[in-house]
Amino acid sequence: MRVLFASNHAYLPHHKGGSEVSTHDLCLTLQERGVAVGVMSALLPRASLAVHRQIPLLLQRRDGFVRDDFLGYPVFRCNQPSHAVRMVVESFRPGVVVLQAGRPLALVDRFTSLGVPCAIYLRDALFDNLGGPVVERDGVRYITTSRDLARRFAEAFGIHPPSIPPIVRPERYRVESSRKSVTFVCPFPVKGVDIALALAARRPDIPFVFAESWQMHPVRRAILNARTRGKANIIHHRPIDDMRNVYRETRIVLMPSRWVEGWGRVVSEVQVSGIPVLGSRIGGIPESMGPGGILVDPDAGVDQWERSLAQMWDDPVEYERLAERARLHADRAEFAPAAIMDRLLAVLSELAGTRT
């Protein structure tokens, strides 16, 4: 079987988010199963030098793409993905396509018209931004990352998709942490940056690390820099390729999200090292966290967040209890990469058998 992951977003290393990192882990794990994998993505105007050398060829053809293989599998970076579908299909010859992120339904008809079935892997609850009508038909399947997201999708459209959490390869994240800091990943408003800033102000004795993930506009970064300037207990990191460099000093991960998280990948990344999480009771976070942390209602005030942080930071017995629960939760059999891959391959194999 040949599997193509397709998106209207840019891909690693030019764009790094949960969807892109999860796709990379999926590709690596599928390759170990003998499955040929490829990725089709948008090409950012400012790309790496390796891709820059091919951009003039791309711009001469509005529907073209450039290909690189430095991630260990082919990545087709397209000036306009919707215009390049036929060319990528002819080049890679996928048996099934997994569409995700960036209005995926805008691409589904272009693939199915070529006889290639599609799985739409939903990673958030922004159902109004899928790029087309949600319909149930032959050659199209939906997958979600969490039971909460599957429930929301079923309530909205009457379709009951399976939930398959993102794969987290433990060897890419496991660390022996010095447990010195609170880490907050992706400092955006919807991720609860105001709560993180308020907690850092109330607890100047605790070092906080703000680590970027999503691509941040320079104006938004300037605003964040202004809000953290002079705060001696806040370190602000630009995007980091290897998050172990952050997790090696993490004692607690803070995840005060205000929007419906499809899963909470950062939770799973740190729990393999026994790092507990203080997070919002919203979306897929409770499922990804399990007993390995403390949940706070997203509309709770900063006082409640501060009390929960103190419970984790100031009480060593409580901290060790939560850290051990986080470690055990990460080690559960159904979350092992092999188990997740079995579930995903079952869906993709069934879809690939519908190809016309």
3D structure, described in words:
The protein is an alpha/beta fold. The chain has 14 helices and 13 strands. It has 2 domains: 2-163, Rossmann fold (3-Layer(aba) Sandwich), CATH 3.40.50.2000; 170-332, Glycogen Phosphorylase B (Rossmann fold, 3-Layer(aba) Sandwich), CATH 3.40.50.2000. 38% of the residues lie in helices and 18% in strands. Helix 7 crosses helix 12 and helix 12 packs across helix 13 (316-330). The protein is globular, with a radius of gyration of 21 Å.
Kindly state the percentage of residues in helix.
Answer: 25-40%
What is the averaged pLDDT score? 91
Number of structural domains: 2
Secondary structure tally: strands = 13
Roughly how many Å apart are the termini?
15 Å
The geometry reads as globular
Strand line-up across the major sheet: 3-4-2-1-5-6-7
Q: What labels would you give this structure?
A:
356 residues, alpha/beta, Rossmann fold, 2 domains, seven-stranded mixed beta sheet, six-stranded parallel beta sheet, 13 strands, 38% helix, globular
Concise synopsis of the structure shown:
The chain has helices at residues 18-32, 49-52, 55-59, 81-92, 105-112, 147-157, 193-202, 218-228, 244-247, 265-271, 285-289, 302-314, 316-330, 337-352, and strands spanning 2-10, 36-42, 65-68, 75-78, 96-99, 118-122, 140-144, 181-185, 208-211, 234-237, 250-255, 277-280, 293-296. With 356 residues, it is α/β, with parallel strands linked by helices.
